[in-house]
Request: fold
Amino acid sequence: MKTLYKNVLGGREGLVGIAVLAALIFVLFPLLLDSFRLNLVGKYLTYAFVALGLVLCWGYGGILSLGQGVFFGLGGYCMAMFLKLEASSVEATKIQSTPGIPDFMDWNQVTALPWFWAPFKSFVFTLFAVPIVPALLALVLGVAMFKRRVGDTYFAIVTQAVALILSVLIIGQQGYTGGVNGITDLRTLLGWDIRGDSARVVLYFVNGALLFACLLFGRFLLSSKLGKLLMAMRDKEERVRFSGYDVSSFKVFVFCVAAVFSAIGGAMFTLQVGFMSPSFVGIVPSIEMVIFAAVGGRLSLLGAVYGTLLVNFGKSYFSESFPQLWLFLMGGLFIAVVMAFPNGLAGLYAQYVKPRLVKPRLGPGAQAAAAGKGSPAAGPALDPVVTPAAPANPAKSAPGNTEAA
Reply:
């Protein structure tokens, strides 16, 4: 129990950080915001699943994926297919030429339900398909790339290409996917109307609970030997490989975990918002998701959640208050954050906030270490359970060393 408290929760400081975020999501937002705004925050939190995955695969694994929107969209489309089939009963679609199929299929002269749609009549199958379908795609892509030692910029370009291909495919196959409009008019989940305010509040809390489950699982991974291996691979990949570890397998694993996180967020997005479209699959949304992680701090899981909320709150505020200038204002926000705070919100916390909190209890040496002066990259202090800094002597972080293991 003590090990769980120290490694997963991060000890006292980590527990405080989790408690603050939990109070914000589960207490403060529901009390202060109306149902519309609360549902909007719920939508923002679905993006935070993607940011968490990016912290794992990009911040710690050194795998920059510019196509996470693919997995977000696949999870969302899996859930949307089930909801659309439930809303397309024979009675509800009796005015169509072919009752019992989604309306966009009938409009496009599709006369029978496609074979790959049929399994999504089962809710149990859908629950399994949401994480498994994106994970399988990530597995295929990861094995094809990492086993051939393709990485860095080339991998990022390939993931961008996959995002573009999938979005074009979805738009082109309008009769089977809904095309550019996506899958809309989603009404019920197992007979429960998801369009009402009360249902959206319930889904908001379910969304928040799943987000915290993913966050804690991510902290567990980073506190384990796998976390040390990921940091070692990011800093000295060849040394890890020469130590006898199969680097490609670890990369494939963490990439699949990030894909599953994204897919869960996509499924919850569909439930919260009530539709799914290819506009969330392509290159632009995928790059925006990377920005969420960068603003929060790509080495901090908690920072990724805060970064997602900050960027999306900024988008909503600027678009409502300055409809003609909001894109320029958002661009200025991104540039300012990258230039002034390269480690994101987590680095800002480590540099300015944490030293003030620990000053009454620590001596001058400990204060300097807490402020990041004793470590070259103490940025993710929002996530104290991990130590993401590259050590002064990389050999000590090599998996072959007993200290690192």
